[in-house]
Amino acid sequence: MNVRMFKAKRVQQNLRQKDLAKALGITEKAMCHKECSEENKFKAAEMLTLIDELDLSFAEFDTIFFNQELTKRLRRVKK
């Protein structure tokens, strides 16, 4: 997970960890743990909520949560 980009998008949207924790229905401590982990700890439903909360494009979503692996795999399928 791209922690730096995740935090930058949160700050850009003027959101605190507390705000995202509330939107996800988790504690601030759990949010901090998930946000600071290099490994993606978010559940699929949480990632969908974060797309809306952080106003993420597909490219941003792919970069933050999947290190652009979704785009790479989609390109292989099209060939």
Apparent shape: elongated
- Overall pLDDT score: 95
- Uncertain runs are none
Structural class: mainly alpha
Question: Which features characterize this protein?
Answer:
mainly alpha; 72% helix; 0% strand
Summary of the model, kept short:
72% of the residues lie in helices and 0% in strands.
Task: Describe it.
It is a single chain. This protein is mostly helical. It contains six helices and no strands. The protein has helices spanning 3-12, 17-24, 28-36, 44-54, 58-66, 69-78. The longest helix has 11 residues, at 44-54. The mean pLDDT is 95.
What order do the helices and strands come in, and which of them pair?
Blueprint: H1 3-12, H2 17-24, H3 28-36, H4 44-54, H5 58-66, H6 69-78
Helix pairs in contact: 2-3
